[in-house]
Design goal:
20% strand, DNA-binding, alpha+beta, 275 residues, N-terminal domain of MutM-like DNA repair proteins, single chain, 4-stranded antiparallel β-sheet, Helicase, Ruva Protein, domain 3
DNA sequence: AGCTCAACCTGCTGGC
DNA sequence: TGCCAGCAGGTTGAGC
């Protein structure tokens, strides 16, 4: 479920429900996530008040009085604010119980998610935490531009799609939006990243921004009331131009779209429009 | 240093 | 209907 737009939408949705609330307790039903939740986390967090919520890459940072909670939704994770008394469903692994009778409930069937405590503020954790310190720029920040991609790609030979999905290069571009952006930029996903010029990278950056921005708006529509329900995965698929559409005609030229595995991930492209 | 691959999990779909 | 293979929106870390 979560690509960057959904993480951003989740952030915007839960922010007003959490900021300023005290955490009564952290209930861990299932600690076995991508990294196990350390047993002492619950005791450390209880009684602290939520300051601010922010996002770095696809990590959500919950600022508390004496540190931060770092939360990642992995491949299948989602967050909802529910009544603290409402019965948990299968795969509801963690509750962050708030002083107002609600709780932030973390649901994650595949358990690729992550919940860690750091004694650093969200700002410091973003700079120093091992999971965050080596991340590239945010795709919507000015630091992400054509020159950035051009410079980093000169010594590398990987396919541009793998390059674009490398979090050390730029964060937050998952498989769906890598495919969509390369289609709109007319770049073949398997093209070696060092064989793309500055101007094409400039175009690619513009397109990435536009796609993410648009889907944040859409994600908002789709998931706006995720507090009540989990959102609607089918809705997204409608606006996708190539992802999941192997064999269907290209919206530009009608040529059947192709599918190919690049860097272990399914890739979709138009063999005529993209080079 | 850069690249590829396996691994962490459950759930769903499509073929037989 | 049931079984099984294959695939899924992410990320890390080992080994070449």
């Amino acid at each position: 479920m979560p690509e960057l737009p959904e993480v951003e939408t989740t952030l915007r949705g839960i922010r007003p429900r959490l900021e300023g609330r005290r955490i009564d307790r952290l209930l861990v039903r299932e600690p076995r996530l991508r990294q196990p939740i350390p047993p002492e986390t619950a005791a450390l967090v209880a009684g602290q008040t939520v300051g601010s919520l922010s996002r770095r890459s696809k990590y959500l940072l919950i600022g508390l009085d004496r540190g931060s909670l770092i939360l990642h939704l992995g491949m299948s994770g989602s967050l909802r604010v529910v009544d603290a008394e409402s019965p948990p469903k299968r795969h509801d692994h963690v509750d962050l119980a708030l002083s107002d009778g609600h709780c932030l409930r973390f649901h994650d069937p595949r358990r690729f998610g992550l919940l860690l405590w750091s004694e650093d503020s969200p700002e410091l954790a973003g700079l120093r935490h091992p999971l965050l310190s080596r991340l590239g720029p945010e795709p919507l920040d000015a630091a992400f531009d054509g020159g950035h991609l051009y410079r980093l790609s000169r010594q590398r030979r990987v396919a541009v799609k793998s390059f674009l999905m490398d979090a050390a290069v730029v964060v937050g571009i998952g498989n769906i939006y890598a495919n969509e952006s390369l289609f709109l930029a007319r770049i073949h996903p398997a093209r070696a990243c060092h064989r793309i010029g500055l101007d094409r990278y400039g175009r690619l950056v513009e397109v990435v921004r536009a796609v993410l921005q648009a889907s944040i708006t859409q994600g908002g529509t789709t998931l706006r009331d995720f507090v009540k329900d989990d959102g609607n995965p089918g809705y997204f698929a409608q606006s996708l131009r190539v992802y999941g559409r192997a064999g269907e005609p290209c919206v530009q030229c009608g040529t059947p779209l192709r599918q190919q595995r690049i860097g272990q991930r399914s890739s979709f492209y138009c063999p005529r429009c993209q080079h």
